[in-house]
């Protein structure tokens, strides 16, 4: 399976990254992409920019562990995760998760699984610039709940028999 | 035992440095005990670890619980709940 995991300061070309997933192969029938974008507000207050801090080494390792878990759960043909760090302005892309499979169900589920874990387990922290000061963004309970739903074992396909 | 510790985000700001080498006394066996010991090292540490329950810990770049043993750890990191993605 083609796996791309990258952390970088620079912007990247989403279209080119997604095209690499199907590329020359003809067995990919579905590519699902999620793009996370820097909003211009945090809890209703306008922000000038956000700065993403990360734990180099662990961030890559943690993403790789969850990509492996996604591969074990769904029949994936490719996964791309690119996460930026440093200072980003509203409108800039923060993260891309793209999953490829023969059929859409696996691609949708794996993309959502990876994003839920990225939010709660990958060591990144957002700080926003609001009204001349800097504030760390609070973690959301809703994100923990979203990740929690994947911890139950996936239903077996023969469970109904 | 000398251990390298790393601090990130708000924990780093409160402690006032990104990393350091520490030598906890022999009785400190777990991550939870280490946080209590760190909190007693001065005002900045007390502030950084005042709400130790919400501080997340990684040993050698893997998430661990507060009852994890620190023996043999190469690198221990302390940070607030994550907000990436």
List keywords for this structure.
heterodimer, A: 161 residues, Aldehyde Oxidoreductase, domain 3, five-stranded antiparallel beta sheet, four-stranded mixed beta sheet, 4 helices, 9 strands, globular, B: alpha+beta, Ubiquitin-like (UB roll)
Describe what you observe in this structure.
The complex is a heterodimer of chains A (161) and B (85). Chain A is an alpha+beta fold and 161 residues long. Chain A has one domain: Molybdopterin biosynthesis MoaE subunit (Aldehyde Oxidoreductase, domain 3). Chain A is built from 4 helices and 9 strands; from the N terminus they run E-H-E-E-E-H-E-E-E-H-E-E-H. In chain A, strands 3, 4, 6, 8 and 9 form a 5-stranded antiparallel beta sheet that branches. In chain A, helix 2 (58-73) packs antiparallel against helix 3 (104-121) and helix 3 packs across helix 4. The model of chain A has no long low-confidence stretch (mean pLDDT 92). In chain B, a hairpin with a 2-residue loop joins strand 3 (56-59) and strand 4 (62-64). Chain B is built from 3 helices and 5 strands. Chain B has a 5-stranded mixed beta sheet with strand order 2-1-5-3-4. Chain B is 26% helix and 25% strand. Chain B has a single domain (25-85), classed as Ubiquitin-like (UB roll) (Roll). The relative contact order of chain B is 0.28. By secondary structure, chain B is of the alpha+beta class. Chain B is globular and about 35 Å long.
């Amino acid at each position: 399976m083609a796996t791309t995991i990258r952390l970088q300061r620079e912007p990247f070309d989403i279209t080119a990254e997604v095209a690499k997933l199907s590329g020359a192969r003809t067995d990919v029938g579905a590519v699902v992409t999620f793009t996370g974008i820097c909003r211009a507000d945090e809890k209703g207050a306008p922000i000038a920019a956000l700065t993403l801090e990360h734990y180099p080494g662990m961030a890559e390792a943690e993403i790789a562990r969850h990509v492996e878990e996604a591969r074990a759960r769904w029949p994936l043909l490719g996964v791309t995760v690119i996460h930026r760090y440093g200072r980003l302005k509203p409108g800039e892309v923060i993260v891309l998760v793209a999953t490829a499979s023969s059929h859409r169900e696996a691609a949708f589920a794996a993309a959502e699984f990876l994003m839920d874990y990225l939010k709660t387990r990958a060591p990144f922290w957002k700080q926003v610039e609001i009204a001349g000061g800097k504030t760390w963004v609070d973690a959301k309970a809703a994100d923990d709940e979203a990740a929690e739903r994947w911890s139950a074992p996936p239903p077996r396909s023969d469970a109904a028999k | 035992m000398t251990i390298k510790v790393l601090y990130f985000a708000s924990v780093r700001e409160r402690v006032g440095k990104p990393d350091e080498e520490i030598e906890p006394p022999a009785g400190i066996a777990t991550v939870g005990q280490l946080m209590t010991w760190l909190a007693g090292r001065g005002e900045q540490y007390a502030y950084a670890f005042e709400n130790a329950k919400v501080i997340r810990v990684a040993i050698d770049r893997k998430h661990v619980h507060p009852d994890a043993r620190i023996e043999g750890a190469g690198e221990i990191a302390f940070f607030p709940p994550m907000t990436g993605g």
